[in-house]
Amino acid sequence: MKIDKKLIKELSEYLDEFKLTEIEFTEKDTKIKVSKNNVSINNQTTPVIKDTSSIEGSNPIKKNSNLGIEVTSPIIGTAYHAPEPGAKKFIEVGKKIKKGDTVMIVEAMKTMNHVPSTADGIVKEICVEDGQPVEFGQTIIILE
Questions:
Q1: Contact, 41 vs 50, CB < 8 A?
Q2: I need a surface site. Which of 29, 32, 50, 91 has the fewest CB within 10 A?
C-alpha cells in the first residue's frame, strides 16, 4: 500500500484551518486518521477576552456593557447543550459558572469540541438551541 503524503498533509492543514483536534478520511479500503497530540483539548478552543469595540466578530468572547459577556462559537459546527442526548445540560439560565467550565459542545466534522468559559459569571441567556448550527463568532451564551 502506498501512503498518500499529499492527502495527509492536506488533512493536517485542515486541523489548523478549522481548529480541530482530529480528522478522519475514508475511501474504499483506505482509512486515514490525523490528530493533534495536545495536553488538553481546552487549549485548542479556549476563547480569549479582548476589547472588541473596534474588531467585531473576531474573538470567541466579547465584552458588551449592555448585554454582559458574550461567549461566541470558536468554530463552525453544531451546538449541543449536553454531552449526549438525554444527559444533563452543561449550563442553564441562572446557573453560576467558573472559568474553564464547559458551556457547550460544538461538533465539527464528527469531532466534539468542548467550549470552556474563560470568565466567572452567571448565565444570563443561552442564545442557541440544542442541535442548532452555529457560525464562527456567533454568540452562544451571555454571562452577567
A1: no
A2: 29
Backbone angles phi, psi at 12, to 5 degrees: -60, -40
pLDDT tens-place string over residues 56-66: 344 444 444 46
Three-state DSSP state, 71: strand
Question: What are the cell numbers at 43?
Answer: 487549549
Contacts of 142 (CB under 8 A, 6+ apart): 67, 68, 69, 70, 71, 123, 124, 125, 127
H/E element, 6: helix 5-17
Q: Which CATH number applies to 42-143: 2.40.420.20, 3.30.360.10, 3.30.450.40, 2.40.50.100?
A: 2.40.50.100
DSSP per residue over 73-137, as a string?
A: -SSSEEEESSSSTTSPPS--TT-EE-TT-EEEEEEETTEEEEEE-SS-EEEEEE-S-TT-EE-TT
With cell 464547559, the residue in question is 102
118: three-class secondary structure by DSSP: coil
Q: For the whole model, what pTM was predicted?
A: 0.55
CA distance 47 to 64: 15
Read off the C-alpha cell for 95.
446557573
Query: What gap in Å lies between CA 85 and CA 83, rounded to an integer?
Result: 7
